[in-house]
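Quick illustration for those who missed Monday's session on complexes.
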Amino acid sequence: MKDITPVNGQFAMPTLPYEALGEVISKETLSFHHGKHLKAYVDNLNKMLPGSGLEGLTLAEVVCKAEGGLFNNAGQVLNHTLYFGQFSNTPKPMSTRLTAMIEKAFGSIEAFKKEFEQKGVTLFGSGWVWLSADKDGNLVITQQRNAENPITDGLTPLLTFDVWEHAYYLDYQNRRADHLAALWQFVDWQVVEGRL
Ligand code: MN
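Prediction with manganese (II) ion bound:
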């Protein structure tokens, strides 16, 4: 995973490389999700860093060392950076290498997607479902609450679906399962594999 370094003590707002993803993530959803929710996390992180003792560290380092509100805001900046950065309207397909890794861990691509969606659907409340790699390159799916990221458990995060209601409610209301199932068509697997 490519880490993020602050400039003059401040983390920059991650850029959004698309205006919408079909009807699965609308422009209106992105105006709130990226423009308001993520903006607030970035602003809060930058306000809370001075005096925390974690100034100058990379974003991943802050997430691994911070607690309380600083952890929540830093975690959400990292999580959303990975989330928004992994989608594309012209996504690259899965390589034979990543296909083999997923098949080894989950049996098949379809079984992997089914388990990933199921873990997203059954996560109670707000959080994230993640595909990560351990230090030996084995792939795992985890559910993480609120602002958590598998990086704090020593894992390398590769892919994530946001299951906070703010991620899908304007487009899908309560139909979280339908939203998650529709996201796969926009996943850029070259970006995902590049985080290994
Ligand atoms: Mn979100």
